[in-house]
Structure formats: C-alpha cells, structure tokens
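User: I'm new to structure prediction. If I give you an amino acid sequence, what do you actually give back? Let's try with this one:
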Amino acid sequence: MGISAVVWDIDDTLFDYAGTDRTAALRLFEAEGLLERFPTPEDALRRWRRTTKEHFAHFLAGRIDFPGQRRARVRAFLGTGAEMSDAAADAWFGRYLALRQDADGLFPDVLPALAALTPRYRHGLLSNSDASHQDRRLRALGIRDRFEVLVCSDQVGHAKPAPEAFRAVCAAMNLPPHAVAYVGDRPDTDAAAADAAGLHGVWLDRLGDRTVAVPPGLRRISGLGALPALLATLAAPTS
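Assistant: Good question. You get back a string of structure tokens that encode the predicted 3D arrangement of the chain. For your 239 residues, that looks like this:
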C-alpha cells in the first residue's frame, strides 16, 4: 500500500509562527517601553522565547492549561510574579495577539503544495497545541476546510514525539501509520518521531540549517515544492 495521506504540523510548517511572533513581540515591547530594559531588542526576544519555551513545555506535560501557560509567559517575561492578576496578564497577551496578524502568516508555498497534492492525497493536521486555538488560526488563514481532521495534544493527552500522538491522527483518518506521511519543521519531534511511530516522516528544513545532526535516512526538503516528488517515491512499489 502506498501513501494515502499527508498529515501536517502547523506552526513553522504551514504558519510562520516565528516570523509573526518576532514582529508582534518587538512592536509590543517598543509600544510599552520595555526595550529599554534590555541591552538590545534581540536580548528581549531571547527572553520572550525562553519563557515561551519553558511554559509551553509545562502545558504539553499537562501541568498547566493553555490560558495558564500564556499568563505564565507574560509574568515570567515581565518579572511581575504572582502579583500580576490573571486579567492583567490576559490583557497584555491580548495586545500581543492583536499585533500578530495570523491571517498574513501562511507560507507562500503552502497553497501551491496543497493544490499539487489534492486529490491524490488526503490531508490531516497534528499539532502540539490547543485544538480550539489552532482551529481559529487555520480559519483565519483560510485553510481549515482543506484538512479532514485536526488533532492536537490537548485532545489526545499525548504530545509529539510520543508515538501515541501520531497514532491518534492516523486513527482519526482510519489509516494505518505506514500509509501516512508526516511533514514538520523539526527533525526530531516531527520527522524522526513520525518514523519511529511507523509513519513516513519528512523534515521541512526551511532555514537550511546544516548544523543539525540528521539521523541517517531522514527525509529532508527545503521547501514544499519538493514534496510531491518525494511522496511519489514513497508510494512507488518496491522490488
């Protein structure tokens, strides 16, 4: 049996999370006079990203809910501690979201790739995130209806790289893992983890990061224009 479906990661695969986050964060830091606290704007961004990584990991581990990790990120970045109320933290994060234009964050190669792959392949989504949050983003991007299923870690109780996460999206599509390719921007938690779960992992290396140690045999593309040809080789019969 060849490849029947492509399951996609969302952030930094379909949606330019890093780029939209950078733009919005710097605009907010400047508007609120926060840049003067740091030697350079890049130092401010590093602190923001460090706190994001730390508290989002708590969400993925089930130690905090999705709104809670947002509040924790705000408090950690601002250094306010518990004295900042939930309402104030929510308002601060809301100002950040207002500056991050999700509707403008779709990578330019996404729509051509989906057009080239449809209807030959079915499409699904698997994300380490909150399902309602990602559903809203995908609708803002105008692409939610192109995917049969959206499976997120908050629904299944497992986050990538756990094989249970990958198997959950395969089950939602009623397909065996070996009939599914998974495309994501991380070589470890996306491509290699998908391979380990029995899918065909594909690392979308948009940044061309040649410093990353890639496991032998890992499939790697630099843009989605290369995906149809790669999938054709996976679907080809073996001798």
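You can read the tokens as a compact description of the fold. Here is one thing that stands out. The mean pLDDT is 94.
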